[in-house]
Amino acid sequence: MIKVIKPGIQLTIQDLGRVGFRHLGVSRSGSLDAYAHIIANRLVNNHDNDAVLELTVGLCELQFECDTVIALHGADLNAKLDAQAVYPGWSYPVKAKQTLKFDTGRGGSRAYIAVKGGIECPEVMGSKSTDLGAAIGGFNGRALQSDDIIKITPYTQPWLCNKGALTPPKRKVIRLHQGPHHELLTPECINAFCTTSFTINPNSNRMGVRLDHNNSQIMQHSLSLHSLAVAPGSVQLPPDGNPIVLLNDAQTTGGYPLIGHVIEADLHQFAQFRTADSITFEFVTLEQATAAKSKLDAHLSQLKLSLNRYWAN
Q: Which helix (H) or strand (E) covers residue 13, if one does?
């Protein structure tokens, strides 16, 4: 078991999400940085979809009540296992009564903590992910709090793995497809969107990232549209001209114009942006998006092959 001493800003249980229920109004949820989630799990020889802990910003403290093995990935939040520094991209054996602490960190926003064997909790609609809006999944449908007990399976075998994993590079230029309402917006609006440097608004969360900029007057509009389906990665443009990039806990329909949709290879980047970070956008073709996804998948495949050879020995 793991006891939560301090949960930090937000600590939730997540797997890769709740798939196949959007037509019922159920959000996908799941780890915002799916690649960090998968890498952390692979470092402890878990299944990719095994539940992990998603920690936002840091200031968290966990006490282990049994022996296990952990791996970290995603944000570097200055983690320490007792007095020992531990780093993203590596696995570490843990003894009962050891404490894992996180500070505010050197880079990134969300860290992922994989535990050998995964986090134990009931599945809801085929997923263990916490949906905070619907209050389902994870730990009674809510973020973890002090004194909560997280169930895990003890692991007492020797752990000698010295294999690590690099973090995919952080991008400041986010690639996206044109949205269905692209042609309804003025050329001036589209040009401003493509040439503006946006900053991350502090009111961003797991539902979406709000973007601030200096060209909001040019991007303002008065379009009135029927609601349509949206998904993680959809970029909405409200009348005030400040875009919103929808993430995993977002609603399933929306009435704002969709100026674009972030490509799958770049969407995980939004899990790691911090308040006041700056980004720009560029539109790409389907072929370019597919190539970017293939490149990222190749990185994961290479890691899996390397680790599988290690486990086989």
A: strand 10-14
Torsions phi, psi of 125, nearest 5? 55, 45
> Rounded distance, CA 283 to CA 10, Å?
33
This prediction's pTM: 0.94
Amino acid at residue number 96: A
Pairwise CA distance, residues 286 & 292, whole Å: 10
The residues of the chain scoring below 50 in pLDDT are none
- For every residue of 133-188, DSSP letters joined together read TTTBSTBTTB---TT-EEEE----S--------PPPPP-SEEEEEEPTTGGGS-HH
Pairing of β 278-283 and β 173-178: parallel
| DSSP 8-state assignment for residue 43 | H
CA distance 45 to 65: 21
How many helices (H) and strands (E) are present in the chain, helices listed first? Answer: 5, 21
**Six-digit token string for 133:** 């809006």
Please name every residue paired with 310 in a beta bridge, in sequence order, or none if there are none.
Answer: none
Q: Which tens digits make up the pLDDT trace of 163-179?
A: 788 777 788 899 999 99
130 conformational bin, left if phi > 0, alpha if psi -120 to 50, beta if neither: beta
Alpha helices in the chain (DSSP H): 34-43, 187-195, 216-219, 264-267, 286-312
Q: Please, is 166 exposed, middle or buried when counting C-beta atoms within 10 Å of its C-beta (0-12, 13-18, 19+)? A: exposed
Q: What is the SS3 assignment for 197?
A: coil
What 3-state class would DSSP assign to 259?
A: strand
